[in-house]
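fyi for ur records
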Amino acid sequence: MRNIFQPLTVKTIHRRTALKALAGTAAFGAVLPWAQTASSAELKGRIKQSVCLWCYNGYMKKNNMDLDAFAAYSAQLGLKSIELVGPDQWPTLKKHGLICAMTPSHGINKGLNRIENHEECLASIRKSIDDCADAGFPNAITFSGNREGMDDEEGLKNCVIGLKKVAGYAEKKKVTVCLEFLNSINHKDYMADTTAWNVKLVQQVGSPRVKVLYDIYHAGMMKEDPLKDIQQHADCWGHYHTGGVPGRNEIDGTQTLDYPVLMKAIVDSGYQAYVGQEFIPKNEDALKSLADAVAICDV
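which gave:
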């Protein structure tokens, strides 16, 4: 992968007290570290930003922060979505004007690359499509599954067969099914781990409602070129995730990718959907890391 890192000039979002924004939340009233960290930012908004909740579970538990408070903070930052949460949590998101830009379905290891998994996986995907359609949310996630000795071309063929079975339904419901590009280092043996494989998948299914969740961190770990992938294959990507390379931590100058350059390429490609922050904060003040990432990606 070509190193596109350049020294970053990060416009820091100045953090203000969020007492007004957090008033009425279940956790409000206690003197907590996060109670003074939300900020109201004037964003350009050319990138609709989202955040993956699971990255903050540890921080939230440590600081007695519930989803209501995290959603209030996220909205105050200018985020539009909290991802990978189920319908039981959506009322809390909607309360703060947020959506779920990527809805879970089946698990990672057991995916569409095996015909014997299709009935179970497709049932889960259809349920997620229905939930998204009812809520007016855009995307449902799916996965290739692990190789377990299977040839990549056979797995690709089986994934295409499975996704064609659900493509028409997704088109009817106006929901996009996104198969996630993951690296096979952290997710050992995962099949959909190269740009070429994922591009072939989208092209062979041939539906505007079947795309790939292009995870920039995972692509970087597989020595792909994210900038080139964004510029050359934007029509194949239905959603993006961030993460610092290496380590999957903050997306600032401590890692090897120039995220402002990547975000500008996404904007220039005509992409109008969501970019999900999915880095794992290394800094103790995880919410400041999130605020800084929002600023970095606001190009």
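Residues 152-173 form the longest helix (22 residues). thats all i got for now
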